[in-house]
Specification:
Oligomer: single chain
Helix content: under 10%
Keywords: Signal
CATH topology of one domain: Glucose Permease (Domain IIA)
Largest sheet: 8 strands, antiparallel
Pfam families: Peptidase_M23
GO molecular function: metalloendopeptidase activity
InterPro entries: Cell_wall_metabolism_enzyme, Dup_hybrid_motif, M23ase_b-sheet_dom
CATH architecture of one domain: Distorted Sandwich
Protein name: M23ase beta-sheet core domain-containing protein
Structural class: mainly beta
Low-confidence stretches: 1-6
Distance between the termini: 51 Å
Mean pLDDT: 85
Number of helices: 1
CATH superfamily of one domain: Glucose Permease (Domain IIA)
Order of helices and strands: EEEEEEEEEEEH
CATH class of one domain: Mainly Beta
Length: about 140
């Protein structure tokens, strides 16, 4: 298992080099409401997709015609990657940065293709970008009276 230092993101990027975010996270108001339950990262077909952190592969399959992989991480967060031609199997332990497969060809709303990366803890969708970046902390100083 890897350890995280102060000022480091919790997750590694699933693509190299660091991709452009094509579509950000948009938390749905309810479980069935519209929204975008992850982020879309610019990626060409055939690009290698990497595990964002150590974990256990809990799903490899096809959902809505797209290859998908899900990983349960020690933190309790599940990451999901699609579309992907997986090279891993359910029950396999993976390490941060390990190849999971290749970007599959799939119709996409992104101009040149994109990887959808999702994050979920229990029934709550999380913004993966917050796990991939170091948050900028701004301390507010009180305004004198």
């Amino acid at each position: 298992m890897t350890t995280q230092g102060v000022g480091e993101p919790r997750w590694n990027w699933p693509l190299a080099p660091r991709p452009r975010v094509e579509r950000p996270f948009d938390r749905p108001d309810t479980a069935w409401a519209p929204g975008h339950r992850g982020i879309d990262l610019a990626a060409p077909q055939g690009a290698t997709v990497f595990a964002v952190d150590d974990g256990l592969v809990t799903h490899v399959g096809v959902i809505a015609g797209r290859g998908t992989v899900s990983i349960r991480h020690v933190s309790g967060i599940h990451s999901t990657y699609e579309p992907i031609d997986a090279t891993v199997r359910v029950g396999e332990s993976v390490t941060r940065g390990q190849a999971l497969g290749l970007m599959a060809s799939a119709r996409s709303h992104c101009p040149s293709g994109c990887l959808h990366l999702g994050a979920k803890r229990g029934d709550t969708y999380l913004d993966p970008l917050l796990l991939l970046t170091v948050p900028r902390i701004v301390l507010m100083t009180p305004v004198p009276d």
